[in-house]
């Protein structure tokens, strides 16, 4: 009898709230806000989810985010994701949000933060979900713009625990943001960063040594650098790995090629996450199930991966 992967207690550490915007909700919000989408139906939109690379996905991702305008939109987005968590026994979440995706469209920072945090607080009160929110900078924009974003977010400092770095990786090394990350650390914010998804192992080194990250998001290309693997193992730096995302974005041709279980058995603190589940065809349970189906993940490995998620959390959980 196999372990029930849906009932397995899980923590999610790599989830973009904007990437949990399901097509059905996107269309409802577009209608509510009087926005005309590029696609005429939910079915037509889903057919567009055949990404050739990270940039193809991001183009669609940013287009979809235009429907998020009011505080209630951000609440509905977050609440819908958290209901998925409740259904899949995800008891702790540390979601990312991208304020620049919204403030650059004229949406006020308070609108974004208040909508998201209202849903998180409700979930905590209603079923005991624990959480910590992470503000991400968009790496295709400048460090000066990241500094201004941090300034705008400081009145809401109590609502988020850390800063991250996401969006287009190629051509935008972590070192580009070393000053704003140093400032964030001085403010007591915990740093994480996307590195080593499309970008080379050098980006992981930079995230560790120049940004001072306590956790690497993705990090799978560390397999190309034995010295880096040893560093990650020795220091037990968590990697927030997103298996289904890596396949949909062509990091690997097949999940059978994915190194997550090899990294686990090599003693690295790897975790399972969904990344942008509305676009990549799976939340937490679906990612665990895919690892069992395509990589032969054992029940013991599933339990270790799940426990790593709690061990790697920035907010202490039990």
Automatic annotation (TrEMBL):
Keywords on record: Hydrolase, Metal-binding, Nucleotide metabolism, Zinc
Gene3D superfamilies: Metal-dependent hydrolases
Important for catalytic activity, annotated site positions: 218
Active site: 197
SUPFAM superfamilies, per the entry: Metallo-dependent hydrolases (SSF51556)
Binding-site residues for Zn(2+), renumbered to this chain: 14, 16, 194, 275
Catalytic activity: adenine + H2O + H(+) = hypoxanthine + NH4(+)
Segments forming domain Adenosine deaminase: 10-315
Class of the enzyme per the UniProt entry, highest EC level: hydrolase
Record-listed E.C. numbers: 3.5.4.2
A Pfam family per the record: A_deaminase
Cofactor(s) listed: Zn(2+)
Record-listed substrate binding positions: 276
Source superkingdom: Bacteria
Gene Ontology MF terms: hydrolase activity
InterPro entries xrefs: A_deaminase_dom, ADE, Ado/ade_deaminase, Metal_Hydrolase
Keyword Transferase on entry: no
Manner of cofactor binding, per the entry note: Binds 1 zinc ion per subunit.
Family: Belongs to the metallo-dependent hydrolases superfamily. Adenosine and AMP deaminases family. Adenine deaminase type 2 subfamily.
Function summary: Catalyzes the hydrolytic deamination of adenine to hypoxanthine. Plays an important role in the purine salvage pathway and in nitrogen catabolism.
Protein's name according to its UniProt entry: Adenine deaminase
Species, as recorded: Marinobacter albus
